[in-house]
Amino acid sequence: MEQHKAHSQPRFDVFDDFEVRRKLRRTLKGFCGQYLMHYFTLPRADFHDEFFSLLEDWSIKFLSVIGFRGSAKSSIGSLALPLWAALEEKAKFIVLIAETSAQAQLLIANLRYELEGNECVLRDYGDVSKGISKQEEWTKRNLLLASGVRIVAISRGQRIRGLRHRQFRPDLVVIDDPEEIKKVEKKEYRDRTEKWLRDEVIPAIEEASARLVVLGNILHTDALMARLKNDPIFMHRDYPLFKGEEKWENCAWKGKYPTQASIDNQKKKVRHTAWLREYILKVVPPEGQEVRDEWIQYYDAIPQPYKDRKTGIEINPIMQSGVAVDLAISKSQGADSTAMVAGVTSQVEGMTKLFILPNPVNAQLSFFETIQQMRSTYAAMKRLAIPMFYVEDVAYQRAAIEEAMRHGIPTTPIKVGTDKRARLRAAATFIQNGTVLFPRKGAEDLIAQLTGFGIEDHDDLMDACVHLIRGMRSEGMEKPEVIELI
Fold first, then answer.
1. Does 172 reside within a domain?
2. Last residue of a domain, one of 222, 239, 256
3. Does 387 map to a domain?
4. Please, what is the Cα angle at 482 between 480 and 486, to 5 degrees?
5. Which tens digits make up the pLDDT trace of 390-419?
6. Whole-angstrom Cα distance, residue 408 to residue 414?
């Protein structure tokens, strides 16, 4: 369905009755069956009917769809939908957005090809450019139809705010593959992409009746498509190649992959990580993911003091508190940041848990600012329990250890090796078994560094968290032994 073949037209005698054709084209699926049969040469996939229904439902204002590579999401969403919406006048101002300028131009070229050369379209809709100056209005990025409908294509990041066609603001916006795989590894890029969507695209569309459709693959666990998946204003759908185990019986498009051998053959063509990302819709960082997303367990609040029922004495459930510091004494742009991750331990159903506290420090600090931050963190933490600070026992950080102790801050040097991955792997055991818990809000960057190690530019928070787990473990994070006196 994704392949563009020669313009083989559907036979006119298939739908000889114009009234039948007119009724069928009221739906996107019926339109594709009549006018775009050269795109749809295979039996439909199991999910295509639902996909058509979602796209043609104008009551769904915000829709995001992640589909496996070759699922026809672009053919349906970036070609069929805008062509149908324009010819049936479902929208007056259609904006298509692609990752690059070349891709944006190709979207318009494909639409123009159908409008000018599709005999079935010309038969039923006529010359849609009649009375329009093609030299001025039919360009690489723009199409104006005789009905007054305009279609514009732009690249990601281009300004859309304030864009108008006559009295109309954009009332159908389709974003296709908004992110580039080589760039999406960087958190700064992911943040900029979401900021562009939230600050530039959404405010630019018509408030009451406009639709925003975002199509793509999940290129990163924190990519825009992953973020939209968790956004309640978006209706979201995932269409992986398999519904369950990777067996032909579970294949979502048997028309494209008619045998297990055809699936195996496709799998051999791509690397394992690409197969997982593009077809199974699972992202694995290079070298493997030491901390998996599903291992992260959350808490809503740390245990609070309570009164003993027998004695009336107030009990502090906090056993220990600690702060791990990963120093970076530089404030130059692009340099690593100093990170401080704090946590407390407490018993939960007889098991010792380490509660990572929200809003860890992650900033470029001078040596003086670092010591001051340690002092203020110490003052805040001792209300829960006197904290122990854990700092790497390496060259320049030794001075920070000595200065902290001079200020009365309990500090323990942590000896580390050179293999960060091995340290993270050791600490990951405590995350996987639920010993380490994270706040529901306030630790997003820390979690991104833990689950995305090997991809993210910075790992300061990850390093500090690993030091904290190691340090608290050495202080007896495991459940203490209870000795009964007889």
1. yes
2. 239
3. yes
4. 165
5. 998 887 788 889 999 999 999 999 888 768
6. 18
